[in-house]
Structures are given as C-alpha cells and as structure tokens.
Write a structure and sequence with these properties.
10 helices, single chain
C-alpha cells in the first residue's frame, strides 16, 4: 500500500535543533510521537491513511532520530516532550490530540503532565510508566537493546529489530510486510550514539507517582504478545491514570500491526466520541 502524502514539510527550528516533520490530512490536529530509534517512516500506512481522513496528522522525528538533528545535550524524556511542544508552538498548534507509541508514549506522558493545556485527548500505545512500578522485558531483550550496535550493519540491526515488533507467527506468514518494514527502518536509520542516548533517557524515566494528575481523556492500547514492553504495563497505567480506558489486543506484539484494523477502529471511536 502506497502512503498518500498530503504535504511533506521541511525541518523547523525548535529549541537547539532542527526537527523534521510531515503533515497529512486536515482537521483537528493529531500529534503522533514515535518510539526508540524510530521515525516517521515507521508509522503503519493504514493508520496514516485512515486517521488523515478525519484529522490533521503531525508526525516528526524525535531528537537524534531520522532526519532530526542529534545535538549534544543530555537526552531525557522531558527534553523530548519540550521538543514536541516546541514543535506545536512553531506550527501554530495550541492544542491537539496526542498519540505516543513505546518511547513516544513516555514522551506523551511527560507532555500531558507538564503541558496539560496542550492536550485534548491522550493515547498511549505499547508503553509504560518507567521506574520500579513498571514491568521490564526479559533479560535477553534487555541485553539485546543495550548491546554494542557498532559491530552490526544497519541492515543487521533492522533485521534484529523485527522480532521485537511483530509476533513470530506474523513474521512467518507475512514476509512481504517484514521486508517492507526493514526498508522503512533503513530509510533513515538512527546512529548508534543517538540510539544509546535515547535508551539512557528511557532508563531514567519514571512518571508513576504523577500519573493521577492526568486529567485528559486517556486511551491505553497494548498487545498481549508484546515482548519489548510486557502487556502488564498497560494495566499499571490504566490503574494509575484517572478514568483511563484500556484495550488489549490478544494477538498483537509491540507494533500492534497484527490487528491494525481493530486498532484503527478503536482509535477513531475514542477520538470522535464527545
């Protein structure tokens, strides 16, 4: 499926960096925040196509990822949230729906906690609160994430990433989609240095004690077969955020790709209900 791009924008100055962003569709803004090492190329084309029919999608590459500048500042999730609100200001967007995936969901938490006036509705996908209340992945996954990536080529890193995003069954049955995903990852791969700095920011992240302060309507989506961010983390978030709605996808891994049509349906229902 070819992604229909309504408009592709150049970089814009935010804080001390130039941020690359894209805009798709028209309507009330929906800001989309990607995860660790990822960028706009990683979004599922089906999600972009369907959501852009109703909303103005604003997607961007986080600090250090894709086509956005790396900078020499110490990376924190709060800094990423400041970058995100800076982008909103630069684009003249005072308020938006926010969707964050994985690390993007962590950024979304910091954004709504520090800038609640900028968030209409909040969607947290495949993410966690950090700190001692979160449920970590297995030691094997943790070691894989923290391994020295300099010994591997970009394509080897991309192929190592695939089992973290999709279920084993999906990989076996959908080789074409897997290959497309690898090409998407290789389009603008993150540097080893920036990946490590983003990972360190995740390690320091912890919002659990502040989650009860979130007042925005919140939807939490999580795949039951997520090995990167175990699914129990969805329940931890839902119990701590007032009136949050939690939806599990029984056959999905971290990327929720396996049940994307259901994901899109749930998203649209949440975003359009009054």
């Amino acid at each position: 499926m070819v992604r229909k791009v309504v408009s592709i924008m150049p970089k814009v100055k935010v804080n001390d960096i130039q941020i690359y962003y894209e805009v798709h569709g028209e309507g009330f803004p929906l800001l989309m925040i990607m995860g660790l090492g990822a960028n706009v190329d990683w979004w599922d084309p089906r999600m972009i196509q369907e959501l852009s029919k109703n909303f103005k999608l604003v997607m961007f590459d986080n600090r250090g990822a894709g086509r956005t500048d790396v900078s020499d500042r110490r990376y924190t999730i709060k800094l990423f949230a400041d970058d995100t609100t800076g982008l909103m200001d630069a684009l003249g967007i005072p308020r938006a729906h926010i969707i964050g995936v994985s690390m993007g969901g962590m950024i979304a938490q910091e954004l709504v906690l520090n800038y609640p006036e900028k968030v209409e509705k909040l969607i947290l996908c495949s993410t966690y609160c950090g700190g001692t209340k979160s449920v970590p992945p297995s030691e094997e996954i943790t070691e894989m994430l923290s391994a020295d990536r300099s010994a591997f080529s970009p394509e080897e890193i991309a192929r190592m990433t695939i089992p973290l995003i999709f279920t084993e069954d999906f990989i076996k049955k959908n080789p074409d989609i897997v290959e497309l995903s690898i090409q998407q990852i290789l389009r603008a791969p993150i540097s080893n240095e920036a990946f490590t700095r983003q990972l360190n920011a995740i390690m320091e992240f912890d919002t659990y004690d502040r989650l009860p302060q979130i007042n925005a309507p919140t939807l939490i989506l999580h795949g039951k077969r997520d090995i990167l961010v175990p699914s129990q983390n969805g329940s931890v978030l839902a119990e701590a955020i007032p009136n949050a709605k939690l939806v599990y996808f029984e056959n999905s891994a971290h990327g929720l790709t396996e049940e994307m049509e259901k994901v899109i349906h749930v998203l649209l229902n949440f975003l359009t209900e009054s």
